[in-house]
């Protein structure tokens, strides 16, 4: 079953004469439990697609279906809770003067959820953070720990979809593997569906079943993980991306696989 269906999706910014279409006619489906990658040069429209799916970019045409339900221009709270975004820079997305507990509490209050402390404890455990981290502030955490908090916040409303926008590119290489493996574990445990934006083909090959290669607001190719690992992609632009990381994708994919650590010591 498809968890996400986007058909002839186009997204623009600005109005009237100033309107610019930055995503042009992309169509894709993501199966339940699948991880679908988006790669392509800076400015090609990857984050814009995630924004449209998440309900942040309202100027879109075409059709979007989430979990079998057609999405309109205006969404209900329940529809908004179903997919959550995780950004590259957790410092930018977590309030610097709120404790982690408060950051996690806020979405629960907005959505009128019960059992708040229990839910906070569950997500902290799920992302491998000690429970007493709820009393800490973001500046008292490492980059990797902050990204765990950003993931915890995305999970607190029990979404079915995570939209991951370069979730590891601000992190040290050694920490990247930890976070990627955490995301992998969570996907299996919580039966999540992911869309992952990354410029790193090794990361994409590690996590994604299929990947759309974008150029200038359009998909030039949708490749399978197998094609990435065997370097049998079709389109010339995909080949350019692959050549930039030749020999690296398969090797780094292996390296990531050998690092199972997903939680921190308490
Ligand atoms: N709020 C906005 N208003 C106007 N134009 C925007 C806005 N946000 C993005 N754009 C433009 O839309 C295009 C696509 O941007 P987008 O952020 O989706 O790119 P991206 O593929 O995510 O790039 P990157 O890899 O650098 O994050 C770019 O040309 C960008 O300048
Ligand atoms: Mg982006």
Spatial strand sequence of the major β-sheet: 6-7-8-3-9-10
> Strand content of the residues, in percent?
15-25%
The averaged pLDDT comes out at 90
CATH superfamily: P-loop containing nucleotide triphosphate hydrolases
Q: CATH topology, what is it called? A: Rossmann fold
Determine the N-to-C terminus distance: 39 Å
User: What is the β-strand count?
Assistant: 10
Tell me, what is the CATH class? Alpha Beta
The whole-angstrom Rg is 18 Å
Instruction: Please estimate the helix content.
Output: 25-40%
Under the CATH scheme, which architecture would be assigned? 3-Layer(aba) Sandwich
Bound molecule kinds, no repeats: adenosine-5'-triphosphate, magnesium ion
- Domains (count): 1
Biggest sheet features: 6 strands, mixed
Overall morphology: globular
Topology as a string of helices (H) and strands (E): EEEHEEHEHHHHEHEHEEHHH
| Low-confidence region ranges | none
Category from helices, strands and their pairing: alpha/beta
- Please report the number of helical segments: 11
